[in-house]
Amino acid sequence: MDEQRKNLLKLLTTHQVIQFGKFTLASGRESDYYVDMKKAITDPRILSQIGEMMAEKIKGERVDKVAGPALGAVPIATAVSLTSGIPMLMIRKSKKGYGTSKLIEGELKQDDRVVVVEDVTTTGNSLLKAVEAVKDSGGLVVRALVAVDREEGARENLLKKGVKLEPLVTKSDFSSYKN
């Protein structure tokens, strides 16, 4: 494991973003760990580390926009945009019912090459919705980046749609880090 990933894992565990114990998840399922990404995206040290690591992953590639679905990924998209100099897009959960009724905020041009970012993935459903929103609006999703992958199907589900998911850290990483 490289130093950046070790440093991110240390930040995530020492700031209790990743917590170990017995937790009931929103789905009602039980888990022996919990990922509180709101703590990460509101902490400037962690957010800047995530932004730098994601920006590094796309450095030298032709990427026109960085997109993040609301709410958790918008700060991450902002951090990546600020670090890389690539303009960002915000993807709403649903079209607003007033004004311009946009689903995507920011300027997305036909065939823009887009990297979609996310804070945490489980099955990847919210990320898939964001990918579809970009595609439906004329963008080309070149890949997806996520801060934490819970390794519960997101990578496989995105691959079925032709999108490669690249996590900064995974459940396997922090499970071995804990030990």
Give a description of the structure.
The structure is a single chain. By secondary structure, this protein is α/β, with parallel strands linked by helices. The chain has a domain at 47-170: Rossmann fold. Helix content is 40%, strand content 27%. Helix 1 runs antiparallel to helix 3 (44-58). The model has no long low-confidence stretch (mean pLDDT 91).
Element layout with pairings:
Layout: H1 3-14, E1 18-24, E2 30-35, H2 37-41, H3 44-58, E3 65-69, H4 73-84, E4 88-91, E5 104-105, E6 113-121, H5 125-136, E7 140-149, H6 154-160, E8 165-170, H7 171-178
Helix pairs in contact: 1-3, 3-4
Task: List the total number of helices.
Answer: 7
Instruction: State the order of secondary-structure elements, H for helix, E for strand.
Output: HEEHHEHEEEHEHEH
Main beta-sheet annotation: 6 strands, mixed
Q: Which fold name corresponds to the CATH topology of the domain at 47-170?
A: Rossmann fold
Q: What is the averaged pLDDT score?
A: 91
Helix coverage percent of residues? 25-40%
Straight-line N-to-C gap: 14 Å
The CATH class of the domain at 47-170 is identified as Alpha Beta
Structural class estimated from helices and strands: alpha/beta
As laid out across the biggest beta sheet, the strand order is 5-4-3-6-7-8
> What is the CATH architecture term of the domain at 47-170?
3-Layer(aba) Sandwich
Beta-strand content estimate: 25-35%
